[in-house]
TrEMBL record:
This is CCHC-type domain-containing protein. InterPro entries: Znf_CCHC_sf. The lineage of its organism: Eukaryota, Fungi, Dikarya, Basidiomycota, Ustilaginomycotina. Keywords: mRNA processing. The keyword Ligase does not apply. It comes from Tilletia indica. It comes from the Eukaryota.
Length: 298
């Protein structure tokens, strides 16, 4: 590995930082090195005004120096103007951003120490009020009566810390209040979806092929068709109820067998009184007249 390039006292802070990194990397690769050896090697990496300064102040007492002390002394002696200018620029453009007020005020004081001329108390107060968050600065100016020309640095910092604490508490309450409203809105949406759904209607299985029980025919009031055999028996002798399933072998009629009269019902199965028969027939059809063949002759 080649030795680091020599620094000639360039007033650029970036150039000095790059030179310091290259020297530190070189020492790390060739470690372990004693502090006296590191100090002597630093003299070989300088040129111009930094080299003259080294031979005048460091070389005579090299045993009392460390490599870090030499680098810090070079920076203060040759880059004080550059550091002051950069610190002044950072001070004028400093913003709080995501820092809390305590960290921001410490950063401003650090930049003020690096400036060639320390800013006045009023300039510090104005920079602090301008750099902090607008919500905080406007609140403490309106509610606490903070003024950059009258209030002290400590008063501004304390008022800002109190305001930040109050804002955090208000945000926590706001978040706790918003959560139930969101849950209630979700519940209302679910209930609305439930009401919008069509009601459930039970539909029985109408597939007769898969059904195990036969389907019951629907009742009808239509007249039945003539079957070819008419029952001429009296109304009180006509059979009622379900149709019999016994069929005669001779006349093919239902309700009796061929052992008896094929076309008459056995009279021993029916008991009818004459008076009751006459009243029933008259009630059935009052205009119907009966003619008996056994009437006495005039």
């Amino acid at each position: 590995m080649h030795a680091p390039e020599k620094w000639n006292g360039d007033r650029s802070l970036q150039a000095f930082t790059d030179w310091v990194h290259s020297v530190a990397h070189y020492f790390k690769i060739h470690s372990p090195l004693s502090e006296i050896l590191k100090v002597n090697l630093l003299g070989g990496y300088l040129s111009g005004d930094p080299l003259d300064w080294y031979w005048r102040y460091v070389a005579p007492t090299s045993s009392q120096w460390s490599a870090a002390d030499v680098i810090v002394a070079l920076r203060r002696h040759f880059l004080v103007d550059e550091l002051s200018r950069q610190a002044a620029d950072d001070f004028e453009s400093a913003k709080q951003d995501d820092q809390d007020i305590h960290a921001f005020q410490a950063y401003l004081l650090k930049l003020a120490d690096q400036m060639a001329e320390y800013p006045s108390p009023i300039a510090l107060n104005r920079r602090l009020l301008k750099g902090m968050k607008h919500s905080t600065s406007s609140a403490i100016i309106a509610n606490r009566g903070i003024d950059a020309e009258v209030s002290s640095w400590d008063e501004i910092v304390q008022a800002s810390m109190d305001q930040e604490r109050a804002l955090r508490y208000a945000n926590s309450l706001k978040g706790a209040t918003t959560t139930p409203q969101i849950e209630r809105k979700d519940l209302d949406t679910k209930q609305k979806d439930t009401h919008d759904r069509a009601p459930f209607v039970y539909a029985p299985n109408r597939n007769k092929e898969n059904s195990g029980t036969p389907a019951i025919p629907a009742p009808t009031t239509r007249p039945t068709t003539f079957s070819g055999v008419r029952n001429t028996s009296a109304p009180h002798m006509r059979s009622t109820g379900p149709k019999p399933t016994d069929q005669c072998r001779v006349c093919s009629e239902y309700g009796h067998w061929a052992s008896g009269c094929p076309k008459q019902i056995s009279t021993h199965m029916i008991h009818v009184d004459d008076d009751e028969d006459q009243e029933t027939e008259e009630q059935d059809d009052p205009d119907l007249q009966f003619y008996d063949s056994y009437l006495e002759e005039d």
